[in-house]
Amino acid sequence: MNYRCRVLPQGGEARVRVPGSKSITNRALLLSVLAEGESVLSGVQSSADAAVFADCVRSLGYDVEAEGDVCRVRGGAIRKSEASLYVGSAGTAARFLTALLGLSKGVYTLDASEQMRRRPMQPLLDGLASLGAKVEYLGEAGHFPFRIRGAGQGGEVTVDVGKSSQFLSGLLIAAPVCGGLTVHVQGSHGMAYVQMTADMMREFGVTVRREGNTFFVPAGKYRPRAYRVEPDLSAACYFYALAAITGKQIEVEGVELPSLQGDAAFLSVLKEMGAEVNGGRVRGTGILHGVTVDMSAFSDQAITLAAIASFADSPTLITGIGHIRLQESDRLHAIATELARLGGKAEEGQDYLRIYPAALHGGTVRTYDDHRMAMGFSLIGCRVDGVTIEHAECCAKTFAEYFDVLSALSEQT
Questions:
Q1: DSSP conformational letter for 408
Q2: DSSP letters for 228-281
């Protein structure tokens, strides 16, 4: 399905609603699964990624009931010592469940979509092997599919997070129920999502201690609880960016600051560019300056910033984003390529992008089956006539209703 964008009028006010946070939903689901007793999660995201995660834990024998944005989970020890799991394209399911099963006492076969098969797993699998897990690759070494016999214990492990902080988050979440872990971290990566993991673990009853690049997690038990998932700031940021380039005031319902989510930092970027920011509301002022920003800690918004940077009055430099080459697409190259397709000018480095002011024109944007490319580049189509987003249905990964919400904005303003 292709989506033909519509140019939105300047000015006006609008309110939008976004799904619950995918990052929080999946962490809360796994923490609830590992807690002995029943947890009730509200505000959960019902995306393709979240559904895959829920199906995986059901495959391990857990009882997960979902109705609307409420999920009931009856947790405890892993019910099945042998199972086959399909993680689809869900990075959190892929890394978190691999960590958990690699520290368990069972034997599990894990596979993924072609997209996820290309994404890195080797650093996590090497760490698990150092603890005693046995990994049998059923395809290319270091990638899905594979069969893993869990180590059945914790201990001391070193993991390189240069390609994904999810490797570390997965180990931390699994640590209490496998006897505890000391995790030494190598590599450079923003730690906002790791902090989210530690904060949520504490809310479920386990405290992570950090000393420099070493994390200590004791053996222990998670407590079941009622838990409310925040609105997804990754999704909200598209509408905040839209406000900045259209002079609108846009409020995203339910967003409260401070937030567990690292993407809240994007609001500060918009403020530096010239937008007015007030809690969960952003208003464009007709001014948009270029910025220099290290986005290593909130790199999901690199596409969003790149999409609006051509409208600024000076160049924008985005650094610390080399790892986004290894996500759903080579995002760094995809950004530069698709901006050029619309008349933009971007200089692509190994781990940075420099985007120059440009008079953009219409065209068809390739999405590379990457939901963030589809949503981010749709912002250009709200300012520039004739922009079409190819394969817009890929947004179902995290926000199936995104283009419906975007279309409805023209009726509110």
A1: H
A2: EPPB-HHHHHHHHHHHHHHT-EEEETT--SS-S-GGGHHHHHHHHHT-EEETTE
The answer to whether 367 touches 397, Cβ cutoff 8 Å, is: no
Helix (H, G, I), strand (E, B) or coil at 411: helix
Phi-psi bin for 295: left (phi > 0), alpha (psi -120 to 50), beta? alpha
Per annotation, catalytic residue among 160, 232, 263, 300: 300
Amino acid identity for residue 144 in this structure: F
Separate counts of helices (H) and strands (E) for the chain = 13, 23
Query: Could you read off the pLDDT of 114-127 as tens digits, one per residue?
Result: 999 999 999 999 99
Identity of residue 146: F
Tally the C-alpha atoms within 13 A of residue 357's C-alpha that lie toward its C-beta.
Answer: 9
347 and 358 in contact (C-beta within 8 Å)? Answer: no
β-pair type (276-278, 353-356): unpaired
CB neighbours of 51 closer than 8 A, spacing ≥ 6? Answer: none
* Structural fold of domain 22-216: UDP-n-acetylglucosamine1-carboxyvinyl-transferase; Chain (3.65.10)
Q: What is the pLDDT of residues 36-48, one digit of tens each?
A: 999 999 999 988 8
Strands 155-160 and 181-186: parallel
Q: What is the mean pLDDT of each run of 10 residues along the chain (413 residues)?
A: 93 95 96 97 92 95 94 95 96 96 97 94 97 97 97 96 94 96 90 95 98 97 97 97 97 94 96 96 96 95 97 97 89 96 96 97 96 97 97 92 91 63
Give strand pairing partners of 211: 214
Helices 402-412, 371-381: axis angle to 10 degrees equals 20
CA-CA distance, 339 to 304, in Å (whole number)? 12
Class of domain 3-19+233-412: alpha beta
User: Is residue 385 among the annotated active site residues?
Assistant: no
Q: Which helix (DSSP H) or strand (DSSP E) does residue 129 occupy?
A: helix 122-130
List the domain boundaries for the chain.
3-19+233-412, 22-216
